[in-house]
């Protein structure tokens, strides 16, 4: 639903109704007044209610692109942003020469930035049931490859030596990559231990 | 730096027009004082300070280039 027609006793009331229905914020609403309310004779006969048509100024995809662009400007970082949207997620890719600071140590800055942007997107679009994923210079794909390699190397060692090994603390997404990479690996099992944000994967002999 | 924090805070709160950031800068340190409507405090702090921590991470990433440390204070 990208636009909504609402009626009310006043224009404001009709607008309130429409933005609640659309799940957007007032500052992102474009309002077209279709009917001004009017008082009939003696305030009884021929009363006409206000009618408005409301649509978002920015759709989620455009909003995300604009939000991230503004963020780069505010951080004095040059980079380009592309946003894709599919059934389950909005995906933003940031590319550029000096965008590396957005990744941070082991992706910490990237994951914190993604956390904030997800909250902002949910505030702006209450009906949006998509997760927002942000990536910088393909970091996520590269990291996934590294983690899968690491998982296989450690697993081989564990199944030979029969001693369990703990990996360094990782985010839930990263631990998931390890568990999945090793789910069919013979002779070992994986589980996680510890409290966030220090929770880590243990690779143990079976 | 100030604009970055303002942008982030405005997107998180219910009353964006009440967001105010004061910047105090010394040689190596930038202190950013963030003020929001009292009902919005929780929205910039989050459960166990998780949102506040994330804000600090992102703001500090921007400060790396300037070779400075940034302290974000959320004040009443």
Kindly describe this structure.
The complex is a heterodimer of chains A (206) and B (76). With 206 residues, chain A is an alpha+beta fold. Chain A contains 5 helices and 9 strands. Chain A has helices at residues 11-22, 60-74, 108-124, 139-161, 172-182, and strands spanning 4-8, 29-35, 50-56, 80-85, 89-95, 131-136, 165-166, 188-193, 200-205. Helices cover 41% and strands 26% of the residues of chain B. Chain B has a 3-stranded mixed sheet. The radius of gyration of chain B is 12 Å and the shape is globular.
Strand order of the main beta sheet of chain A, please? Answer: 1-3-2
Instruction: Compute the CA-based radius of gyration of chain B.
Output: 12 Å
Report on the biggest sheet of chain A.
3 strands, antiparallel
Report the helical percentage of chain B.
Answer: 40-55%
The CATH H-level superfamily of the largest domain in chain A is: K homology (KH) domain
Summarize the topology.
The complex is a heterodimer of chains A (206) and B (76).
Chain A lengths: L3 E5 L2 H12 L6 E7 L14 E7 L3 H15 L5 E6 L3 E7 L12 H17 L6 E6 L2 H23 L3 E2 L5 H11 L5 E6 L6 E6 L1
Parallel strand pairs in A: 5-6
Antiparallel strand pairs in A: 1-3, 2-3, 4-5, 7-9, 8-9
Helix pairs in contact in A: 4-5
Chain B lengths: L1 H11 L7 E6 L3 E7 L5 H5 L4 H15 L4 E7 L1
Parallel strand pairs in B: 2-3
Antiparallel strand pairs in B: 1-2
Brief summary of the model shown:
Chain A is of the alpha+beta class. Chain A has helices at residues 11-22, 60-74, 108-124, 139-161, 172-182; strands at residues 4-8, 29-35, 50-56, 80-85, 89-95, 131-136, 165-166, 188-193, 200-205. In chain A, 38% of the residues lie in helices and 25% in strands.
Task: Offer a few descriptive terms.
heterodimer; A: 206 residues; alpha+beta; GMP Synthetase, Chain A, domain 3; Ribosomal Protein S8, Chain: A, domain 1; 38% helix; elongated; B: 76 residues; three-stranded mixed sheet; 41% helix
